[in-house]
Amino acid sequence: MSHDGPMDRRRSVQVIAVTGGKGGVGKSTLSINLATGFALGGRKTLLLDGDLGLANADVMLGVTPKYTLGDVISGDRSLEEVLTPVRPNLSIVAGASGISALAGLGEAEHIGIVRAFSSLVDDIDVLVVDTPAGISAGVLQLTQAAQHIIVVVCDEPASVTDAYAVIKVLSAEHSIRHFKVVTNMTRSGGSGTQLFATLLKVTNRFLDVVLEHAADIPDDDFLRRAIREQRSVIDAYPGSAAGAALKRLVSKASQWEAPHGSRGNIEFFAERLVAPSGRRLQVIK
Ligand SMILES: Nc1ncnc2c1ncn2[C@@H]1O[C@H](COP(=O)(O)OP(=O)(O)OP(=O)(O)O)[C@@H](O)[C@H]1O
Ligand SMILES: [Mg+2]
Q1: Which of 123, 146, 232, 277 could form an SS bridge with 36, CB 3.0 to 4.6 Å?
Q2: DSSP code at position 264
Q3: Which one is predicted more confidently, 181 or 144?
Q4: Distance CA 37, CA 235 (A)
């Protein structure tokens, strides 16, 4: 744990949300690999599993969290107590019911959440947020709070449509302009570039947003094998095509800078998480 001076207390914690609209495009796969990649690189990482589905990030990493964010919201546990260690530099917190409950919380609970996350500021360098499929209020709330948003898209018409819909809502309702796009499960060289171009064409035509093609992850049997072994491919098969592409994404993402000042701290994330309208909460320290 670092003991920074008061000036450094609000040091930057990188917050990256992974979303995509459509189910099964590889959001959780990307999240666990990003998180593992950061951890292997020596950055203290927390993976917030906002997924309610069966192929949860925790299952993918072979751990079983005992508590969820819901236990923090209800006041039964501290955030530290609900963190499940996965490996050196990596812990996971299960969102589960906590995420869907976010919308119905009162001010006191909001402040509790903000405090809980803010208390992590000295303990983590990066927070990776895996979101469930769909464009529900909970997913949007979770996503818009992050500093960097990764939209995962694969080569299926429904995936492109859903990615577009997510970007549209986030830009229209939350004034978010910058999106990192990861094309996933592509089957030939160049098809990821083409897929990105397809998405870019529609967003350029109808929305005022900036898309960056952050990575192209090929369809890779090693990745499926790693999932069966409950490991991240970046760790189990780093030399595989998917593993190498993910490693490149990790080093790229480590360099991503906050779009503007205050978006780079975890307190900001927590505040936006509970009050997406931008209403600032008075948190008494
Ligand atoms: N690059 C890839 N190569 C091969 N298989 C992949 C790749 N990415 C994902 N998959 C496969 O797709 C499956 C679904 O991925 P994942 O669970 O990450 O999707 P998801 O978007 O999180 O789904 P959900 O919306 O249900 O949460 C994985 O179990 C894996 O088998
Ligand atoms: Mg998932």
Answers
A1: 232
A2: G
A3: 181
A4: 8
Q: What b-and-e string marks burial along 250-268, b requiring 16 or more CB atoms within 10 Å of the CB?
A: beebeebebeeeebbbbbb
* pLDDT tens profile 224-270: 999 999 999 999 999 999 999 999 999 999 999 876 655 557 777 88
Contacts of 83 (CB under 8 A, 6+ apart): 46, 91, 92, 93
Q: How do residues 118-146 score in pLDDT, each as one tens digit?
A: 777 778 999 999 988 888 877 888 898 89
Kindly give the number of the ligand 1 atom that is closest to the alpha carbon of 221.
Answer: 4
Which ligand has the nearest atom to the CA of 24?
1
Region 88-102: what's the mean pLDDT? 76
Buried b (16+ CB within 10 A) or exposed e, 75-107: eebebeebbbebeebbbbbbbbebbbbbeebee
Ligand 1 contact via 154 beta carbon (within 6 Å):
no
Q: How far, in Å, from the CA of 25 to the mean position of ligand 2?
A: 8
Which ligand gives the minimal distance to the CA of 227? 1
Candidate of 19, 29, 48, 183 to mutate for ligand 1, largest count of ligand atoms within 8 Å of Cβ? 29
pTM, whole model, 2 decimals? Answer: 0.90
Superfamily per CATH, domain 12-274: P-loop containing nucleotide triphosphate hydrolases (3.40.50.300)
Query: What is the 8-class DSSP label of residue 143?
Result: H
Residue 242 identity (one-letter amino acid): A
What is the residue extent of each domain of the chain? Answer: 12-274
Residue 274 burial (CB count, 10 A): 22
Residue 249 Cβ inside 6 Å of ligand 1? The answer reads no
